[in-house]
Structures are given as structure tokens and as C-alpha cells.
Amino acid sequence: MNNNASRRTVLQGVITSTVVIGFDILNNSWVTSAHAASKFENLPPLDGVLYTDNATLIPAADDFGHIIHRQPTAVLKPGSIEDIVRIVRFARTHKLKVAARGEGHSTYGQPQVEAGVVIDTSTLNKIHDIGADRALVDAGVRWSQLLQATLERQLTPPVLTDYIELSVGGTLSVGGIGGAAHRYGVQVDNVLEVQVVTGEGKLKVCSPFQKRDLFEAVLAGLGQCGIIVRATIRLIPAATHTRVFLLYYDNLATFTRDQRLLIADERFNYVEGQVITNPSGGWRYMLEAASFYTPPAQPDNISLLTGLSYSQGTETIEDKSYFDFANRLADTVALLKSIGVWSNPHPWFDIFVPGTAVDNYVGEILSTLTLADTGEGPILLYPMKTERLTLPLFRVPNEPVMFSFSILRTAPPDAATIARMLDDNRRFFERNRDLGGYRYAINAIPFSQEDWKQHFRPVWGKLVSAKRRYDPENLLTPGQGIF
Ligand SMILES: Cc1cc2nc3c(=O)[nH]c(=O)nc-3n(C[C@H](O)[C@H](O)[C@H](O)COP(=O)(O)OP(=O)(O)OC[C@H]3O[C@@H](n4cnc5c(N)ncnc54)[C@H](O)[C@@H]3O)c2cc1C
Q: CB under 8 Å to 16, separation ≥6 — which residues?
């Protein structure tokens, strides 16, 4: 795009109404949206578009949680990595905060920025290369898009999230957990190199062998030290089919015992589990395990199920294509969207519980939890081996096995119910923290800067020095509330 044309497209959108968006302490005056938009008049030419209209700003002031709302002054839909460099430099000069936004599936304002600039990475969505063991992709690529492309070459990312319509940049900034994590670690453990735009507006390449401090500061780094713009992701050979086993349990300790057994001997490719309602009252447990295969080879059901203590005769076994299994939430999400539940508030609770504490801790929570407390959202419980987790900012219990425990609450749009659920989240979090557990930072738990310090404690000093080095003006990702 030539400069004249891009200049025309730099600032799109009309301020339809002027609203007060903040107070300027230096000038002792209210800041209005029109005033804020005028800040962008000296913007350098862009390959993409910077929007300041309400139709674009309002969705950027929301996320999947629908609990926190912070309106930015502008939304950049970048046309290139250079656009991100330009806007971060511009923001630095004008003291504007900046946050990247992938698919906005956070639940508590994490991708939002009050009166700053949101960089919507969904326009940066090119798969540049798929090699024999790696893929080079833009941060705005969704995992479903990457998987479809890699499967054409019988390859797959080693770990996929349960829902694959999340952006690569979004999950790499938090961790990216899934049922294959007991074998391969989480998604950030499967990244070979990242390209990052730092808070100084510099494009850097980092890996375990080059600028390792930056690599370790951005993967699971909650967007604090840089915006991930491109990543090289490890690929492994993909099977064509999946055999999915659903095994039911009445007893929590038996369920977690079998899950531990399965991740210890790695007989399955995928291990997760859910707490489900018992028709006669209370809770039951469903172990979900999957074996990947390519016909004519077939999984051996008998040896896969040997030594497990599920309720015999209630199990189900089903074969699917590898992609359909990876994409298994698509139908449920379409249904939830069609009945309007998808757009309800989601005060999600996601934590990592030390393996030694899981039965007592989860049992205690379930003894008081009702369907009204979850809004009938799923409750996930599954183990991972912590030795497979290599990134320092992905904080996990100091034990060989931990359990991911998630209460994926849906709330009515009613402030009192949301407040009660958030209080419960905080209370449950504190109990787990005191047992040596951690939160998974995608969720809705009210958190102070002191809490973050404690969360990162052994690596807090490293994070602070990386922040000083790569985002000295503290521009990036204020929605996490860390700095
Ligand atoms: C239905 C559903 C299912 C989910 N299932 C799983 C699951 O199985 N496993 C799992 O691990 N998680 C899961 N999640 C959580 C999800 O991984 C996180 O919320 C993730 O951050 C969402 O990605 P996103 O692209 O929507 O990120 P966003 O919500 O847009 O951003 C998340 C955070 O990362 C920052 N960020 C975004 N892009 C970048 C970038 N390029 N560089 C630096 N920082 C960036 C944002 O500023 C924000 O702070 C699920 C969420 C939903 C709604």
C-alpha cells in the first residue's frame, strides 16, 4: 500500500458521540473521546487501519467474561508487524497504554485497556511456513486454522486446548493447557522461537538460545514484556483417528487415582476428566481418555482399560477423526450461541491444585457447590506432570503431579450473582494458594498487585527486571493488573 492510500486509511471511524473517558491530572481537565481521538492525528502511515469509532471500540471494551468493561481510545487492526512497531512507538511517545487482543476469550478484562490502544491481532493471521517439525505462524492465527493446515501434511501441534478457536498469541501469553499436556507440557513448552514487539517498540527474535530472558518473559508472560507477533511452533506426526473412552466413577479418590495411573504410564495420548451431576443427587466423575491411531492399526481396548476401577458397564467408546476430536466443542458452542448463553457473563475459576491436596480440596468444594453456583457450566478436573512444564512464568505447584481444576461458571446478567461468584472464586483461590496451589491466569479472580507478587514469588525479581528492560514505560497489558 502506498503512503497516500495508507494515510487515508489510517484513522477510520467517526466519533458518533463525545463521551468523557477520563481525567487529565496534568491539565486538570476531563478527557473526551473526541479529544483522545485527536491524539492520533500525527500517526505515521500504517498498512492496516486504526479505528476510533464506537462500533469498534465497544466490543474491544468487553471479553468472554462480560464482567469488566474498559473502553480503549483506538483499536488497531494491523496490516503488518511494522504497524505494531509503529503504534507501540507512537503510544510510548504519547503515554498511551497498549494491549494485544487475540480472540478476547479472557474472562476478567485481561485484553482490555482504558483510554489506550487495543491491537486486534486477528488481522495478523498468516501461516508462513509448515516444515517437517515446525510451523511459523502469525500471532492472530487460530489453533483450528493451524491444525487444518498441518493435518494436510499429517502433522499436528503436540498440545491443543479444548476449544481451538483461540489465538496463538492469546494462549501463548497464558500457557495453553489440554489433555496431551501430561506428555508434552503445555503449549508454551512447544514453542521454538518467538518474534516479539517490546514495550519500547522494538522487534526482537527470541528463543531458548537467543535472548532467553525475553523468551521466558513473554511465554506465559501475560503480555507484560512484549506483544507476540509471530511464533515457531513444534509439530509432531498426527494420527488420522481418535478412540475416545468415557469412564464413569462414583468416588472422587478412585477417579483421581486412575487419572494418575494413566498419566504415569502414558498409555493414552490424551487424559482429561469432568465432575458431572449424579441423577440421584450430588456429583459423579467422568474420565475422558483418548488414543490416537491410524488404520489399519487399532488401539487395544483391553490393555488400555486394564487396572482401572470405573463403574463397569457404563463406559462409552467412540471413534472419531483426529480433527473432529480436536474440534469437539464446536457443536456445543454453536448451540450455546444459538440459545444466547454464550453471551452471558462467565466468572470462570481455573486453578492448579497440588496432587497431594486434590481429593480433600476438590471434595470440600464440591460438598457445598450447586448447579446454581456453576450456572450448569462444566467442571473440569485432570492431572499433569509438572516435570514437563519448563517456562518459569507458568506458575504451578511444587509437586510432581498437579490437577487443573476449573469451574466454568455461567452467570445470569445480574450484578449480585456475579459478585457472589467472584467472592467464591476468591475464597476457593485462597484456600488452594494456602495449600501450595496457583491460579491459571485466564480466569475471574479479583487479584491485587500484592497477590501477583506472591503468585510469581521465586521469579518475581526476574519478571520485574524483564519489565524494566523491555517495557520501561509500563505500557503493555494493564488489564492483568500486575504493574
Ligand atoms: C470456551 C473457552 C475454552 C477454553 N479452553 C481452554 C483450554 O482448553 N485450555 C487453555 O489453556 N485455555 C482455554 N481457554 C482460555 C484461553 O486459553 C485464554 O483465555 C486465552 O488467553 C484466550 O486466547 P485469546 O486469543 O482469546 O486471548 P485474549 O483473551 O484476546 O488475550 C488473553 C491475554 O493475552 C494477551 N494477549 C493476547 N494476544 C497477545 C499477543 N499476541 N502477545 C502478547 N499478549 C497477548 C491479552 O492482552 C490478554 O491479556 C478457553 C477459553 C474459552 C472461552
A: 53, 54
Pick the CATH number of 241-445 from 3.40.50.2300, 3.20.20.210, 3.90.1150.10, 3.40.462.10: 3.40.462.10
How many Å lie between the centroid of ligand 1 and the Cα of residue 84? 19
Burial of 25 (0-12, 13-18, 19+ CB in 10 A): exposed
Determine the residue of 87, 122, 174, 218 to mutate for testing ligand 1's pocket, defined as the one with the most ligand atoms within 8 A of the Cβ atom: 174
Question: pTM to 2 decimals?
Answer: 0.94
Contact between 181 and 388 (Cβ < 8 Å): yes
Class of 3-123 in CATH? alpha beta
User: Could you read off the pLDDT of 147-159 as tens digits, one per residue?
Assistant: 999 999 999 999 9
**442 within ligand 1 shell (Cβ under 6 A):** yes
**Nearest alpha carbon, ligand 1 atom 46:** 111
Quickly name the fold that domain 127-238 has.
3.30.465
Pairing verdict, β 241-249 and 98-101: unpaired
Q: Are 69 and 309 in contact (CB under 8 A)?
A: no
Q: What is the pLDDT of residues 140-196, one digit of tens each?
A: 999 999 999 999 999 999 999 999 999 999 999 999 999 999 999 999 999 999 999
Find the helix packing angle between 358-368 and 252-265, rounded to 10°: 140
Q: Where in the chain is the domain with CATH 3.30.43.10?
A: 3-123
CA distance 222 to 224: 6
Q: In the 8-state DSSP scheme, what is residue 207?
A: B
Kindly tell me the sign of the dihedral angle through the C-alpha atoms of 169, 460, 209, 396. negative
